[in-house]
UniProtKB/TrEMBL annotation:
GO terms for molecular function: nucleic acid binding; RNA-DNA hybrid ribonuclease activity. Residues 70-143 form the RNase H type-1 domain. This is RNase H type-1 domain-containing protein. It comes from the Eukaryota. It comes from Fagus sylvatica (Beechnut). Pfam families: RVT_3.
């Protein structure tokens, strides 16, 4: 509940701005107001001793799911992949996906030299995102008070 409260507080402190690219980017530490028609999906992973949980947050709802890995990089890549699948299944065409996993964002940005543990997830993510009109994967630095 505290994480949800922090996320809501962060979301409520929206500033004006936008970005337009069909790629991965690095940067923002706060929520940014989007152009009309753009949907932002924020994803994250929590790693446990026997499995991990991933989550995708869209302003109107949050979804959680169990994944069968205890490797943080794989869990984060699965969260990003699931966000892309949710975007397609909900008919979204213009999306921003945010992740706090810089290594995954950089893997998408590079498009090559992807760590072997996430090659399948990143490859599938890229294929799915190519179906969209416009997309951006952004690295978001998490700060905790």
């Amino acid at each position: 509940m505290q994480d949800l409260g922090r996320s809501w507080k962060e979301h409520s402190a929206i500033s004006i701005g936008s970005s337009h690219s069909r790629t991965a980017s690095i940067g923002s530490t706060m929520w940014v107001r989007l152009d009309s028609g753009v949907t932002k999906l924020n994803c994250d992973a929590t790693v446990g001793s026997r499995f991990s949980s991933i989550a995708v947050v869209v302003p109107a709802f949050t979804l959680f799911r169990k994944v069968n890995t205890i490797i943080p990089l794989q869990a984060e890549a699965n969260a990003i992949l699931w966000a892309s699948k949710l975007a397609i299944s909900h008919g979204l065409t213009i999306v921003i996906i945010e992740s706090d996993c810089n290594e995954c964002v950089q893997a998408v940005k590079r498009g090559s030299c992807i760590p072997w543990r996430i090659q399948v997830a990143i490859g599938e993510f890229q294929r799915i995102m190519d179906e969209l009109e416009w997309w951006n994967l952004q690295w978001i630095r998490r700060t905790f008070c």
